[in-house]
Amino acid sequence: MPQASRNVLRPDRRSGGARAVLTAIGALLIALAIGAPALAQDDSGADETLGGTLRTRDEAGENIFVEGATFTVFDADGNEVGSSTTDAEGAWLVPLPGPGFYSVELDESTLAEGVSLREGASNPLTGIEVQPGTTRNTLFPLGERVTTEDNTIRSVQLFVDGIKLGMIIAMCAIGLSLIYGTTGLTNFAHGEMVTFGAMVAFVFHVTWQVSWLGSWMSSLVFAGVVAIVITGVAGWLFNEYVWKRLRNRGASLIAALVVSIGFSILARYVLLYQFGGRAGFYRDYRIGQQVDFGVFSLLRKDIFIIVFALAVLVAVGVALQRTRIGKAMRAVADNRDLAESSGIDVEKVIRWVWIVGSALAGLGGVLFGLTENINWEMGFRLLLLMFAGVTLGGLGTAYGALFGSIIAGIFIQMSTLVIPSDMKNVGALITLIVILLVRPQGLLGRAERIG
Amino acid sequence: MDWGAILENTIRGLIGERFIVFALAAIGLNLHFGYTGLLNFGQAVFMAAGAYGLAITVVTIGPRLNDPDGLDLGLSTTTLFWLGVFVAVVVFPLIMALIMGIPTLRLRADYLAIVTIAAAEIFRLIARSPRFDWLTGSSDGLSGFSKTFYDMSPFDPGGRYLFDLFIGNQMFLVLVGWVVLALSAFTCWLIIRSPWGRVLKAIREDEDAARSLGKNAYWYKMQALMLGGIFGAIGGMLRAIGFSLAQPDNFITDVTFFVWVALILGGAGKIMGPLIGAAILYGILDFTDIFLRQGVANGNIPESIMTGTQVGQVRFMLMGLGLVLLAAFRPQGIIGNKEEMALDDR
Amino acid sequence: MTADDMDVPGVPDAGPEAADPEPVAVPLAEALREVDHEAARAALADVPWEPGAKKPDPILVADHVVRRFGGLTAVDADHVEVQRGVITALIGPNGAGKTTLFNLLTNFDKPDSGTRVFDGHNIDDVPAHKIANYGMVRTFQLTKALSKMTVIENMKLGATGQRGEKLWRSILPFTWKAQERDIEARADALLERFKMSHMRDEFAGTLSGGQRKLLEMARALMVEPTMVMLDEPMAGVNPALTQSLLGHVTGLSEQGMTVLFVEHDMDMVQEISDWVIVMAEGRIIAEGPPASIGENQAVVDAYLGSHHDSALDLDTEL
C-alpha cells in the first residue's frame, strides 16, 4: 500500500497545497482500491443473510440486549454455513452462500447469566426460507431475565470491562490529543484511522489469510503489526501531503477542521464501499474461553487485550517522559512558540506525533475489532468517545487523554447499572457536555492565560 | 441511457423538495457559521427537532391530550397539526439551542463542534432506542401527521404538474417550500442588514472586540444559534412532511455535512449562498445518482466495480471530497469574494 | 539603552498642543462636560510619589488584586488608584504583569481575589461587556479591527444603546432607522476628526497597522466613554503616525476623558502622561509624575535587573 501511494505522490513536487491535497485523495482512493478485490471476494455472493436481534426484558420491562450469544447457521443438508455472536446491541448476522432453506441454532450455553429461552421456544429453528437478495430475521424469544447475580459482582465485572474499553479509547485518543496540542487541529478524521487499522488487519488476517507464519494467533499478530505499520505510514503521508501543506499556506484552523471532516466522510464511505455494511470478525476470536476470577470473569482475548494495552500505554507514557522525542512532543503541545525558540524542530515533532498517533489509533482499531466487531462506522462511533475522554482529561495533554479515556471507559460500562445498555454511550456524551459546563479545561488541564 | 429521465431528475434536484429542505437548513447554518462564526456540526439535530416536534405533538402527545380518561381536550386534527408546527419550529429548536449552547458558547469554537456532533449522536441513539418507542417510534419512526397538510392542497393528488416534474402532493409541498424559503431568505436579509446583524459579524471577526464595545457576545451567539436552529427546524419539518415520516435515519450526522457542503459551495456569509449552494449540490448529486444507477442497471458499469447499493455511497464520497476541496481551495464558495476571504488570514 | 536614558528625552509639557488635530464638533457625553482636565492634573501635585498612593478623585480603584497562572503569580497589586481626568501610564519591564493587570482592570480576566471599583460601581461580578455601559472602553495590544467589516460599520458598531441590536426589532427597520442615521452622522464626524473619512467604505482588513490603531481608538469613542484604556497604543505604528496618535490621546484627556495606557516606549510616556505607575514582577513598585520615575531607585533596579535591553525598546515584543 505505501508503495502504491509513493507512485502517486511524486517526491519532487514543489507546488502548493492544491496538488498535494488532490494527490493525497488519489492515493487514498488507490490505496483502498487495492484492498478492494480482496474484500469484494468476501462479499461476493453474500447478498443473502440471516440474522436477528436477541433481547429480553428485565423486571422493569426495559429492553436488555443479550451480548455474546452464538448462533450457528446450517444449510438444508445440515452443513455448517457460518456462525455469529451477538454484539452489544444483541444483533447477529450470518452471510449465506445463496437463497434457499436454512436452519439456525442458538448455543444456549453462550447466553448470559440469568437469560434463557422462553419455555416452549424451538431451538434450532428449521426450514427458514431466504429469498434472493434479502436479509431474513429470525426470532428467538427469551424469558424474562432473572437477576441472579449480586449487584456488587456485576459492578466489578463492569468495572473491569470499563478498564478494557477505556484503555482502547486511550490508545486511540493519544494521537487525537497530541495532534490537537501540537497543531491546534481537531482532527475529525482520526476515527477513520481506527477503522482503517482494524480493516487492514482484517484483510490480512481473514480475507487474504496470511497464515504462513503458522498458528492462527501468530497470523493475527502479524496482521496487527501490518496494520500498525500501514496506519503509521498513512499518518505520515496524511501529515506530509495534506496538513503540512495547509499549515504552510496558513490555512485557518476552522478551514482545517472542515477539511478533516471532509476527509472523515470521504474515508468512511470509501471504507463502506470496499467493505460493505456488514460487520466482520477476526476469525477464531469471536468466542473464546471464559476465565473465572471469582468476582468477575474474562474471555482469554480480553485478558490479552488488557495486558497488552496496559503494556503499550505504559510504554507510551515512559516514552513521553524519558525519550528526547517524547519530551519534545510534550514541550510542543505545552507551548509551541517556547519549544520552537528553545531549538526544538517543531515540524519533526509534529511528523512523529502523526506517525505514532496514527499507528496507535490503528492498533486501537485492531483491539477494538477484537472485542466487538469490525465495521465501517466503528471509528466514527469511537471518535465521539475519544472526544469525551480527551475533553474529560484536558484537550491537548497526553496524560490527560490517557486518564480521561480510562475514566470515560469505566463510566460507559458502569452506567449500564442504571441505564439500558443500548444507551450507554448517551450517558458518556451527556457527561461530556456536563464537564464542559463545569470544568471546560478538563480534569488535568490548566486554565488558559489571557493576553 | 435515458437522457430525458436524467434531465428530469437533475432539475428536480435543482428545485425540488430536497433543495428546499437543505437550503433552509443552510440558511440557518449560514446564520451560525457564515455570520456568527459558530461551528455547528449538529444542524441535523435542529432538523430532527422540527420533524419530531411535529410528529411527536400530533402522533404521540395528541392522543394523550384528547384521552377521554385524561385531559380530554378534544383538540381537532387541524388544531393539533398547527400546535405541532409551533412546537416544531419554536419550542424544540429553542430547547436544543439552549442544551447545546449553554455549555459551549463561552468556550473555544471547536468545543461547539464537538458538542453538536455529540448531540447528533445522542439524538440518534435516543430516537432509535426501543426504550423510547412510545415517544419516537424507535427505528421505525413516526408517521400519520401530514394528512392535515396535504388536505390543504389545491392540487389533484393524481395529477402531474410543472412539466410533469411533480405529482399533486409533491407540487403542493414544493410550492409551500418555495414560499417559506423566499420568506426565510428575505427575513435573513433584513436581519443581517440591521444593527443586530452587525453585532453578529463583529463577533465572527473578533468576539473580544465586540465585548469591549459593550456587546453581550454570549447572548448574541445564543440568539444566533436559536434563530439558525429555527430555520433548520423548518427544513426538517418539511422533510418529514415530504416523507410523511419522521425517522432517526433521516437525521444522522451525515445530513449535517450535506448542509455544510451546500453552504460552503454557495458561499458562507452571503444571503444567496445557501440557496445557490443547495441547488447546485442537489443538481450534481441527483445527476450523478441517476447517471450511475442507469449505468449499473443497463450494465454499462460492471457489477465488479459498482453495485446498486454502492451508488448511494458514492454521493457521500462526493460530499466528503467536495468539503475537502472547497475548504482547502475555495473557502469563499461560488459567489464569495476571494479578496474579502483573504482578509481573514491574520 | 540604560535606565539613565529614561529621563533624557522627557519634555513633559511639549508636544501635545502642537500635535493636537483641529477640533471637529463631536458631542460629548454628559458626564464629561463636568470634568476639568487642568484641575484634575493640578490636584495630582499633592499626591505622594509612592506605590498605591491615594488620589484626590479616583475613577478606578483596585484592592488586593491577585492573579495566578498555575504556580506563577502574575499580578499581586495591593492598591491602585487612577485619577479622574488625567492620562496615567502603566509601565514596567517585560513580564511585569502590565497586560494582565490591564485585563483585570477591564474585567477581561477574573482575578483569583481582590476587588475593583470603577466610577462607584463594584465591577467584580460584572461581565466584561457591561463595563462599556459604565463608561469604560478598552483597546487591544494586537489591534482588533474587524477585518471583514467596513470602516464605517466598525464605527457604527461602537455606539451603545442601539435599538436595532434587539433581534425582534431588526426585522422592523422603521423602529431603528432614525437612530441609525444619528449614529452614522456621529461616526462620520469622528472619522473626520481622525482623518479617516476617505477610507469610510474600505474593509478594515485592508488598513495599515497604524490606521487600525486609529480606527480602534475612534471606534472606542463611539461608546462615549468616561475612561479609555489603551493597551500599547503605539505598538507596531509607523513613526509617521505616532505624533498624530499622541495628539489624539491628549485630545481625549482634554475633553475630560480619563486615559490609562500600557506602554513600552518611555518617550511617549514622558511626553503625554500626567502620572506613571510602574510594575515589576506583578507588583506596583513605584508611582509618580513622569519626571520622577527615572530617578526612582526601585524602578532603575527593576529595569536593570530584568532584560533591560528589551524593556525600554519599542516593539520588541512584536
The total of beta strands of chain A comes to: 11
Structural class of chain A: alpha+beta
Number of domains of chain C: 2
Query: Termini separation of chain C (Å)?
Result: 18 Å
Blueprint (SSEs and pairs):
The complex is a heterotrimer of chains A (451), B (346) and C (318).
Chain A: H1 2-8, H2 17-43, E1 49-53, E2 55-57, E3 63-65, E4 70-75, E5 80-85, E6 91-95, E7 100-107, E8 125-130, E9 135-137, H3 151-183, H4 190-207, H5 216-248, H6 253-275, E10 290-292, E11 297-299, H7 300-322, H8 324-334, H9 336-341, H10 346-371, H11 378-393, H12 398-414, H13 424-438
Parallel strand pairs in A: 1-9
Antiparallel strand pairs in A: 1-6, 2-3, 4-5, 4-7, 7-8, 10-11
Helix pairs in contact in A: 1-2, 2-5, 2-6, 3-7, 3-8, 3-10, 3-11, 3-12, 4-5, 4-6, 4-10, 4-11, 5-10, 7-8, 8-10, 11-12, 11-13, 12-13
Chain B: H1 3-15, H2 17-35, H3 43-65, H4 77-104, H5 109-128, H6 133-136, E1 142-143, H7 147-151, E2 160-161, E3 166-167, H8 168-193, H9 195-205, H10 207-212, H11 217-243, E4 245-246, H12 253-266, H13 273-297, H14 308-329, H15 338-342
Antiparallel strand pairs in B: 1-4, 2-3
Helix pairs in contact in B: 1-2, 1-13, 2-8, 2-11, 2-12, 2-13, 3-4, 3-5, 3-11, 4-5, 4-11, 8-11, 9-11, 12-13, 12-14, 13-14
Chain C: H1 16-19, H2 30-33, H3 37-43, E1 58-69, E2 72-83, E3 87-91, H4 98-105, E4 113-118, E5 121-122, H5 128-134, E6 136-138, H6 151-157, H7 167-170, H8 177-193, H9 209-221, E7 227-231, H10 239-254, E8 258-262, H11 266-272, E9 275-280, E10 283-288, H12 290-293, H13 297-305, H14 308-311
Parallel strand pairs in C: 3-8, 3-9, 6-7, 7-8
Antiparallel strand pairs in C: 1-2, 1-4, 4-5, 9-10
Helix pairs in contact in C: 6-9
Provide structural commentary:
The complex is a heterotrimer of chains A (451), B (346) and C (318). Chain A is an alpha+beta fold and 451 residues long. Helices cover 57% and strands 11% of the residues of chain A. In chain A, α7 (300-322) packs across α8 (324-334) and α12 packs across α13. Chain B has 346 residues and is mainly α. Chain B has one domain. In chain B, 72% of the residues lie in helices and 2% in strands. Chain B has helices spanning 3-15, 17-35, 43-65, 77-104, 109-128, 133-136, 147-151, 168-193, 195-205, 207-212, 217-243, 253-266, 273-297, 308-329, 338-342, and strands at 142-143, 160-161, 166-167, 245-246. In chain B, β2 (160-161) and β3 form a beta hairpin. In chain B, α12 (253-266) crosses α14 (308-329). The model of chain B has no long low-confidence stretch (mean pLDDT 89). With 318 residues, chain C is an alpha/beta fold. Chain C folds into 2 domains: 3-145 and 225-311, P-loop containing nucleotide triphosphate hydrolases (Rossmann fold, 3-Layer(aba) Sandwich); 147-206, no CATH class. Helices cover 35% and strands 19% of the residues of chain C. Chain C starts with 15 loop residues before the first helix and ends in a 7-residue tail after the last helix. At the A-B interface, α2, α6, α11 and α13 of A face α4, α5, α12 and α14 of B.
